[in-house]
Amino acid sequence: MKKKYVKTGRNELCPCGSGKKYKKCCYGKKDSLFIDIGQEYYRKYKIKIKNKVDIEGIRKAGKLVVNTLNLVEKSIKPNMTTDEINSMVHNFTIENKAIPAPLNYRGFPKSVCTSVNEVICHGIPGKRILKDGDIINVDVTTILNNYYADANKTFFVGTPDADAEKIVLTARKALEKGMAMVCPENTVGDIGWAIQNYVEAQGYSVVTEFVGHGVGIDFHEPPQIAHFGRKKEGVVLVPGMVFTIEPMINAGKKDLVILDDKWTAVTKDRLLSAQFEQTVLVTEKGYESLTPF
Questions:
Q1: 281 and 151 in contact (C-beta within 8 Å)?
Q2: 111 and 103 in contact (C-beta within 8 Å)?
C-alpha cells in the first residue's frame, strides 16, 4: 500500500491515528511521519482503497455488467415490457455464475432498474410497455465472486425525437466531463463542478438527491460522488479509490417525486430525465473505467 509523508508538529495529533499528540506517541520512531494512505482513508472517511486483487475482481465483474448492457441494447424494441428486460438481465447474470445485486436489496423486488422517460432512477420493471420514441435507462449492478460493479446507459426505443436525442447525448457527455476530472490530487468536488457546469450550460438541471458512490467490496461504499459542487472541495482522490459517477439530468427543473412504491423517482414536472454511469478506478496518473462502453 502506498505511503505518504506527513509534516507534523510535536503538539499536533499523531499521524498514526491514535488521537494522542505526536510528542507523546510516535515522535522519534522510524518512519513515524509516513502514513499508510489506505489506513488513513478508512479511518477518516471509511473509504476502502482497493488492492490489485480487488481491482482485478471488480474489473471482471465490470466486464459482465457491460456484456449485460450490450445484450439489452441489442434486444430493446417497441412493445417490449420492462419486465422482459428484467428477465433478460436476471437470466444472463445467473448463467454467468453471478448475482444481480439489486434483487432484494433493501426490499427492491427486481434484478435491474428500468427508468423510462420521466423516471429519473430506480424504476421497478413491470408491465409498462415501451413505445417508439421512448428513452429508457437500464441500471445493472452485478456481483461476481463477491465483487461488485455498477453501470447504466440510457437507450433509445425505436426512433427518438430531437428533445430525447439531445438530453441523452448531453447525459453521456456529462459523464465524460466528470470522468475527465478523475486523477490523484483532484477532489470529488472537481467531478461535480465539471458535470454541473456542463449540464447547466446546455439548459438542463442536475438531480441533487442522488449521487455516485464507492463500490467494489460492497454495493454502496463511501465516498459519495455528488454531480454538482465546487472545485477543490471534498475528499482528495488517491490511487486505488473505486467509485461510480452517474449524473442524472432533467429537461426541466431538478425537483423530483418518489412514487408510492417507495423506489421510483420521477421528475416533478414529468419532463424527460436521462443518466449514464460507469465504475471508475483512480490510477497513478488518471483513471480507468472498469465498465468501459
A1: no
A2: yes
**How much is the average pLDDT of 24-30?**
59
CB-count exposure of residue 75 (10 Å: 0-12, 13-18, 19+): exposed
What's the whole-model pTM score?
A: 0.89
- Give the HSE-up count for residue 168: Cα atoms under 13 Å, Cβ half-sphere: 23
* Set of cell numbers at residue 273: 430525465
Give 1's pLDDT tier (boundaries 50, 70, 90).
very low
Report whether 258 contacts 270 (CB < 8 A). Answer: no
Mean pLDDT over 130-144 rounds to: 98
pLDDT band at 259 (very low <50, low <70, confident <90, very high): very high
The DSSP string of 227-258 is SS--TT-SPBP-TT-EEEE--EEESS-S-EEE
Q: What angle do CA 229, 250, 110 make, to 5 degrees?
A: 100
Across the range 131-152, mean pLDDT stands at: 98
Q: What angle do CA 19, 28, 18 make, to 5 degrees?
A: 10
The pLDDT score that the predictor gives to residue 38 is 84
Q: Which residue has the cell 453471478?
A: 98
Which DSSP string corresponds to 57-72?
Answer: HHHHHHHHHHHHHHHH
* Bridging pattern class, strands 34-36 and 205-206: unpaired
- Other CB atoms within a 10 A radius of the CB of residue 169 amount to 14
Neighbours of 242 (CB within 10 A): 27
Label residue 15 left, alpha or beta by phi (over 0 means left) and psi (-120 to 50 means alpha).
alpha
Distance between CA atoms of residues 220 and 217, nearest Å: 9
C-alpha cell at 183: 486523477
The H or E element that residue 287 is part of is strand 287-289
